[in-house]
């Protein structure tokens, strides 16, 4: 009995096809990246404070199309604005104060926390019930909601964690520490008694009291 058999042409062809397919699969990711030019420099931040957005572009080198995105974003200017800077969405509304709406000037105030489209610029005419969408998109870096770090980028609300990273779901713990475990403070419950004075009258009021106690710094 023969211990080995000579490979037939059909077997060799199947083996070569298998090697070719494996090579293409292993290089697929590299090939996709190879169709793109290198990422360009980051743009200027959309804001100077309060958290903004910056973008970088890349060019498709293929004569057909490339798989993936040609733009990427990151947060920037993640420092608090001075109090006199005002609300970013309010600034965008007030920019329309000198533009007539149906032949009349209005002082526009921001309409925040729209559950349906938080990234459109909706403003209300001061002293009226008139609410108008003055722009389909707010400027990049505008907060989607007043009590959230999530920001609008290119008209879409993007998740932002307390680490100021796009797509991050990291949140502050009860002690206000980003991604903390709540071990840096403790909750103390008790009762409080306040005195409210008006002219010569005093009113005593009792109620629950919650205090966050932080350990002293070493």
Automatic annotation (TrEMBL):
Per its UniProt entry, which superkingdom is the organism in?
Eukaryota
Keyword Transcription belongs to the record? no
From which residue to which does the signal peptide run?
A: 1-28
Q: Keyword set for this entry?
A: Disulfide bond, Secreted, Signal
Question: Please, one GO biological process term?
Answer: extracellular matrix organization
First-listed, main subcellular location of the protein, grouped into a coarse class: secreted
* Gene3D superfamilies to which the protein is assigned, alphabetical: 2.60.120.830, Thrombospondin type-1 (TSP1) repeat (2.20.100.10)
Q: List the disulfide bonds.
A: 45-76, 49-81, 60-66
Q: Which InterPro entries match?
A: ADAMTS/ADAMTS-like (IPR013273), ADAMTS_ADAMTS-like (IPR050439), ADAMTS_CR_3 (IPR045371), TSP1_rpt (IPR000884), TSP1_rpt_sf (IPR036383)
The record's section on Pfam families has:
ADAMTS_CR_3, TSP_1
Which PROSITE patterns has this protein been placed in? TSP1
Can you give the residue ranges of the ADAMTS/ADAMTS-like cysteine-rich domain? 103-185
**Transmembrane stretches, start-end:** none
What does the UniProt entry say about where the protein is found? Secreted
Q: List the GO terms this entry assigns under cellular component, sorted alphabetically.
A: extracellular matrix; extracellular region
Alphabetized PANTHER family for the sequence: ADAMTS A DISINTEGRIN AND METALLOPROTEASE WITH THROMBOSPONDIN MOTIFS PROTEASE (PTHR13723), ADAMTS-LIKE PROTEIN 1 (PTHR13723:SF157)
User: How is this protein named in the record?
Assistant: ADAMTS like 1
Which organism was this protein described from?
Rhinopithecus bieti
What gene does this protein come from?
A: ADAMTSL1
